[in-house]
Specification:
276 residues, alpha/beta, TIM Barrel, 7-stranded parallel β-sheet, two-stranded antiparallel sheet, 9 strands, 36% helix, globular, binds NADP nicotinamide-adenine-dinucleotide phosphate
Length: 276
Amino acid sequence: MRHLHFPTGDSIPALGQGTWRMGEASRSASDEIAALRHGIHLGLTLIDTAEMYGEGAAEELVGRAIADCRELVFLVSKVYPQNASRRAMAAHCEASLKRLGTDQLDLYLLHWRGSVPLDESVEAFERLVEAGKIKAWGVSNFDVDDMEDLMANGGGRCATNQVLYNVSRRGPEFDLLPWMSERKIPVMAYSPIEQGRLPATGSLQAIAGRHGATIAQVALAFSTRRPGVMAIPKASTMAHVDENARAIDLCFEEDDWASLDRDFPAPRRKQSLEML
Ligand code: NAP
């Protein structure tokens, strides 16, 4: 598994596991737990969750999945923007920790920018670092102007920005990815397989065929091809987890990526950051 160096000094796999919509139906919980544990076994040890997902249900499911292997996992959760204030954040972090069955998060993210002033959220994050409740903090769904505001508001220790980025959503390549790369802040690409909606036609299909790969694997390799960009696909079956884990070992070349430009052109001008 290829790894990235994180600002905290941790080494993080370029491919992790998302958990949105997990934990919401009791009949699928055991399959989801098995899938997450299988992923950890294969080296997909970054697990992304949020207090929003199932209003805590995804965190509870992750807690069950990692109960006997917490030390193997780089655990990420997110706080709702309305809870990212000086007064509320600590209690919301504590509730996440309890659901996850741990006493420290590796990374805590502001889910998207809301009305709480950024300097206040930064202060609340830094207090949690000092208290040992989180190792690092970051943001999500921040475009370049948001990142600049963050830096101007004491946010120099932001450890990542989690954004929508995949082969069909290339807007961040124009300015956000270069901005992050210049400052050596890693990017976490969410919905890297476009929630399963990518077309099994055209250049995607051709590249997959040439390499004996699947569309999902090409998409994952695309999202993680730049240094400093990791991806967090969500998979609730062991078969999908297996397939995703193998994506990182496939060797695609510049010609492959160039052939994608016809169907999925690289951005030529600024596009506002999209969100799902
Ligand atoms: P995604 O990972 O692009 O796609 C998930 C969908 O793809 C699921 O339906 C899954 O099916 C399917 N899938 C997984 N592996 C596959 C494979 N090898 N072949 C075919 N289909 C496959 O979408 P996402 O869940 O939106 O994004 C990933 C994670 O990013 C989320 O779970 C969440 O942790 C995070 N996220 C963050 C934000 C944010 O605002 N920060 C927003 C969206 C997502 P099965 O479940 O049946 O395996």
